[in-house]
Amino acid sequence: MPVADPINFIDAIDNDAERPALLADKPLRIAMIAHCLYPIAQPFAGGLEIITQLICDELVSQGHEVLLYAHQDSQTQARLVPMLTRETFDKTVYPNEHETLGMSREEMYQYLVYQDVLRDIIERNERGEIDIVHNHSLHHIPMMTGQAFGARFFTTFHTPIFPQLRLALLTLRHGTTTQFTAISKHQQQLFSEFVPSTVVYNGIDVKSFDANIESMDDFTRENDEIYFWFGRICPEKGTHLAMQYCMEAGKKLIIAGPKSNQAYFDEQVAPLLAQDGENGAQRLFNYVGHVTKDEVNRYLCQATAMLFTSTWDEPYGLTLAESLACGTPVIGFDVGASAEIVTPNTGVIVAKEDKDAFIKGFTKIKSISRQACRERALQFCSVAAMVEGYLALYRVAVVESEQQKKGVETPTDANLKLNSFNHKNGKSNKAEPIISSSSGLNNIMERG
Questions:
Q1: DSSP 8-state assignment for residue 137
Q2: Which among 15, 226, 305, 340 is most buried, taking Cβ atoms within 10 Å?
Q3: 384: which DSSP letter?
C-alpha cells in the first residue's frame, strides 16, 4: 500500500522561505462538532461521547484552541459552544411545523441544530478564527455544508452507514475535497464504496486507568474467578449471550451499563437475572447499573477477563481498549475491529455466537499475561497516539490551504492528496486509502 507521510509532504513544498512559519508548532484553532443527542460528560452515554471529550481535552492540553459545539450540559476543557436546546427549538417553531416539511419533529430539530452550528462556524471562519473543522456529528448537514472548507474539513466515521450518513455520501462519492477518517481498518473498508478515508484508531487515556498486572497465577490465587461485562444494554451488544455462557459454564459475572433498550432488558436480561440462584443454586450474576469510569476500572482490575459479546460489527470497541488498559484480557466475538485491537497474546477471539468456543475461552484466558494486555494498550490504544494522528492530518491540510492562498503549487501525487478524487465515467477515481500509525510522528502513516 502506498504511504503518505505528512513530514515528507511538507518537505516537498518548494518555498523554503515560507516553510518555517508553516511548520512552527503554533496552536491550531479547531472547531469540533459533536452530536446533539447526549452531553459530552460522565456518565457517558457511549463511546462516541468519550472519544469526543478525550480529543478535545488532549488538544487543549497541547495548547490548541478548541471550540466544542455540543449539548449544553457537556463537560470539556475546550470552549463549549452550546447547541440549540430543545426548549428553544419548541419556543421558536410551530408545533406542527415538522409536518408541513414531511419530517418527524426530531429530524427537524437535528436539521436546525446543525444548520445553526455550521452558520456559526462559517461566520467565525470568515473572520479568520478557524483553521480546522472536525465533524463527529453523524449527520448529513455538516458533511454537506462542510464543503465550504475544502480539505480543512474532516469527518470521522464512528458508526455503520446510517441513513443520515448515506444521504450525504451518495452526493460526496461524486467528488469532494473534504477529508474523512475511519477508526479502524474494518470501518475504512465499509465506507470505501463512497469515499476514501485515513485510519486514525480511537484512543483512551490509558495512564488514567489503574492496572492489575499480576501474573495470572498470582491473580487467580488472590482473586475469585469472576468475569465482567460492560456497555450499553441493548440487542446488538449481546448482554444476554454473556449471561447464558456464564450460566452454562457456572461462572460469576458482573454486568454494568445503562438500559439503553428497556424492552430488550425486560425481555432478555431481566428473566436471566430472575432465574439466577433459583432452587438454592449459587448466584452468578450481579447487575450494578450504569457506573462511572472509576468503577469500571475497579471491576476490571478484579476480573479474570472482560466478556465482549457484541453481535454487530463494532467500528472500534472502546470497552476492549479499556479492558486492556486495566491489564484485563478479553474473551470476545470476532466482529468489526475486535481482532485489530485484541491480539492472540491479549485475549481469545472466537466466531460470533460460537458458544462452545466461547466457553472454552474461560480456560484459555488463564494463560494470558495481564502485563501484555497493559503494554498493548499503551502502544496501540492511547489518546496521545490518536490525537497525534489527527494533528498530522490537520497540519497537512493547513499547509495546503496556506500554500493555495499564496498561489504556491503543491504536490499533486494522488498518494498525498488523501481524499480528493474525481468522478469519471460513472466510477470514482479514488485515492488509495492510507492507514495512520499509533506511534511516532515520523511514521504516522506507516500502518498498512
A1: -
A2: 305
A3: H
